[in-house]
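Entry type: protein chain
Record version: 2
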Amino acid sequence: MRSKPIVLTTLAVTALCVVACGSSGSGAHGTFSSVSHTRPTEIYQVSLSGKAQKQPGAPLGRGYAIIALHGDSVVCWRFAHLHGFTNATDAHIHAGRKGQSGAVVLPLSTGPRLHHQGCVSASPTMVKAIMSKPSGYYVTIQSARYPTGAVRAQL
């Protein structure tokens, strides 16, 4: 009986990936309708949690993120099933290994309200750096109560 939630979670994340990777969206830098016609170069499906946040995050915060790299200059995202915190404001990709804080390297959704999906342009250098060592980067979602990050996950 324990495998049922795992199977449902896996199916939900896979479905989100298909939607995130196959749809266009808007981000801080505009709409990328051409993304809907391209397959992602790389996809990262991660579980977000408040416990993973270096500074105190939302203790019961959780959710899922899909980060899809399209070619060498577009990064798309989709966030789902966010729980344990309210008033999400923005999201970023940061440089930093597990347990370390790092600088923002790519703004995804910029406040005052979180966009649950979208795409932004990125430099080819940044996309290549993420692809070469994804564990050296993490995604965070900030909120009004947790401005340094309510939830986090390593890529």
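Comment: The beta strands are 26-27, 30-31, 42-49, 62-70, 74-83, 88-95, 104-109, 117-121, 137-143, 151-154.
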